[in-house]
Structures are given as C-alpha cells and as structure tokens.
Amino acid sequence: MPRRELESIHGIPLYWCFVEKWGQVEAFQARPDDLLISTYPKSGTTWISEIVDMIYNDGDVEKCKRDAIFNRVPFMEMSTPNFINGTEQLDKMPSPRLVKTHVPVQLLPISFWEKDCKMIYVARNAKDVAVSYYYFYQMAKLHPDPGPWNEFLEKFMAGNVAYGSWYDHVKGWWEKAKDYRILFLYYEDMKEDPKREVQKVIQFLGKELKEEVVNKILHHTSFQEMKKNPSVNYETMPSWALDHSISPFMRKGISGDWKNHFTVAQNERFNRHYEEQMKGLALRFRMEI
Ligand code: A3P
C-alpha cells in the first residue's frame, strides 16, 4: 500500500483510512465491564495488553497464545480496507472485553465515560517515544514517510504525527485520571520493577492471583519472551502493513535509547520545548532506567 499523508480528525492528525468510518468510533457502545487500555503510540501498549490478558486468563499461557494480540485486545479505532475494523470486531466479542486505543481524551467515545469503565493508561517518556515512533513510522506503512531523524523529531515536537501531540495526550489523560477510574502507569516504572507494577494492575482489576501465577505472568511478558512470541510481536501482520525487515516491532525494549539518537543540540532544543510544555505540572517522567 502506498504511503499517504495523515488526515485531520477533529484536529488530530490520524490515518487516512480512519476517516470514512470515524462515525462508528464516535457511536461505539462501551459496556460497563470493558477494560480500556489507553496509551500514546509506542508507550508499551502491547506489553500492558499482554499483561492484562494474562491476568484475565489466570496466567494461562496457551489461552493467551490462542490468537494475535490485535484480536484478543482489539484496536478500537483501527480501520483498514479489507483487514481490520476495531469497532466491528468489538461489537461481536463476548464480555468482559479488553479494548485498546491511542486516542486523546477528547476523541474517546463518550460511552466509556458514561459507563464509568475502568481504564489503564501507560505513559512513556517523550524522548524514548519519539525514537520508538521514528522506527515504527519506517516499518508501519500506514504512516507518511518519516524523513530523516531530525525532521521527524521536529514533527514530533510540533504534534504533527499520528495521534497528535504527546504533550496534550499525557496531560489530557493525567487530568482525567483525577475524576475517573484510571490507573496511570509509567513504562519506566514497569521496566524498573515489573512485579510491583503488575501487582498494581492485579489490585486495580480486583483480582487475587497466587505468587506462582504472578511469576508466570512476569516471565511470559518479559521483553525476551514477547520478542519471540508471534502472537504479540505482530509478525503475522501482512508486510504491506508492517515490514519487519525494516525494524522489528519488539525493537529494544529499554529506557534511555534516546541517548543513542539525540545530538547534544537536539537534546537542548527538546529540553527547552519540554519545559515550556510541561510547566507547572506535577506529571514527572524519568528519561532512563
Ligand atoms: P522500542 O521501540 O523502544 O523498543 P507499543 O506497543 O505501544 O507500540 O510500544 C512498543 C514499544 O514497547 C517498543 O519500544 C517495544 O520494544 C516496547 N515493548 C514491547 N514489549 C515490551 C516488554 N515486554 N518490555 C519492554 N518493552 C516492551
């Protein structure tokens, strides 16, 4: 499929193929027992999705390998010609459903707020997101050409990338977490102490799992295991959508890779912009772990 420019949906740059069916997204009916997994792209969506699916299945690895992650945790707003339609997939699913989205708060279908669904938001530091997104833009053909790194970084800072500004996204969800049932997690914390963070998720979901089950979940969702697991590493996706010969989806799985990509000048410019955008907020990110 040839690459195409992003389109604007209510002011947010998004994939051209979402436009036609956006009405379905707006009209999507959440159910009270849906669990919404929300992230800005490249923040650990697939990781938290697999953790939650493992928790829902009491650590049964075979059940979690039964199907690709994008069928077990459908991507709500995804709409591609003749391939995936997230809302249609979800409408057919039995409850309780796991739903994935990357939308900023203002684009979330209103029924999620009305039904007071539980939600998990995972945030990752902006520098590592920018780097991870740069590789993803290259491999995922739904995106326009990212151009050279320097150009892409400028676009990222300006919010001129799919799903818009990272800053607006994390700030929007952070604000909502004050009033709704949202567990706000950080990728860096998950890297630092996966057991502690998985326990938080278990508690948030109101489950009780034996220590051995928790350990199984941790093993199954480690980067090394997920990298070789075809049900989560997207290798079953057609190459017109994701080209793994350009970059693997499970690329490095670390915090601080930005240091291998940002020049000193880029870092200084980024830091100035970052300070302006995040001024006065209690929201703090660690840039490495
Ligand atoms: P990198 O490109 O920095 O390696 P998403 O699922 O939101 O698209 O995020 C993808 C990023 O999460 C990639 O980052 C990927 O390697 C990382 N990731 C996926 N599974 C992970 C895991 N189990 N542990 C750590 N990082 C993981």
UniProtKB/TrEMBL annotation:
- Top-level taxon: Eukaryota
Q: Where in the cell is it found?
A: Apical cell membrane; Cytoplasm
- Which portions of this protein are annotated as coiled-coil regions? none
What are the residue boundaries of the Sulfotransferase domain, all occurrences included?
32-281
Q: How does it assemble?
A: Homodimer.
Instruction: Identify its protein family.
Output: Belongs to the inorganic phosphate transporter (PiT) (TC 2.A.20) family. Belongs to the sulfotransferase 1 family.
The name on file for this protein is Sodium-dependent phosphate transporter 2
Record organism: Alligator mississippiensis
Q: Lineage, please?
A: Eukaryota, Metazoa, Chordata, Craniata, Vertebrata
Q: Which gene encodes it?
A: SLC20A2
